[in-house]
Amino acid sequence: MELVRGEERVKLQAGQPAPSFDLPDADLNIVTLDEFKNHRIVVLYFYPRDDTPGCTLEALEFSELEDDFTRLQTVVLGVSLDDCMSHGAFRDKHGLCVQLLADPDGEVCQRYGVLQEKELEGRKKTGVVRSTFIIDRSGLLRHALYGVSPRGHATEVLDMVRGLGKCK
Predict the structure, then answer these.
(1) Rounded to two decimals, what is the model's pTM?
(2) Mean pLDDT of the chain
């Protein structure tokens, strides 16, 4: 286990119920996990920060595959510690289709085990480990991916979602 602010960071695993959430998006609409239950697969990805190179690449790749995810009855949600205003500016600047959710207090990030203490230039700071969770229609985690690389990740996730249909 890794330590975060003196607490153990628990990594979630496939088969566990996905932790619930209700977070505002870039337009201040509240999005809850429960609203998708029995209707859609949810790809919930956590990223460090709006408008940084890796996070922009990842969001653009997910946005480019929006039609493919929609055909698979899947919604893609991105979460970071940034606020709604930052998300709106990031979305608008890059023409993103992905719905971005704000978790400025890190509560949902904590529940998903994606916060990690990092040291940069001698200072310790808590940040988000780039991670993705695929949640089935019943609310169970089917995949829990920690420490992912942004390039090509959206395509890998799309393939995993396609694989869920083959498991039935």
Answers:
(1) 0.89
(2) 91
Which one of 55, 84, 97, 109 is the catalytic residue? 55
Shortest CA distance to 115 belongs to which of 29, 12, 14, 31? 12
Q: Which amino acid is at 42?
A: V
- Each residue of 17-43: pLDDT tens digit? 999 999 999 999 999 999 999 999 999
Both tokens of 58, joined, read: 């990842």
Site of tokens 């694989």: 163
Residue-range domains of the chain with CATH: 2-163 (3.40.30.10)
Contact 12, 114 (CB under 8 A): no
Can you give the length of the chain in residues? 168
Residue 55 bears catalytic tag: yes
Q: Using alpha carbons only, what angle is made at residue 144 by residues 142 and 149, rounded to the nearest 5 degrees? A: 130
* Residue 97, pLDDT above cutoff 60: yes
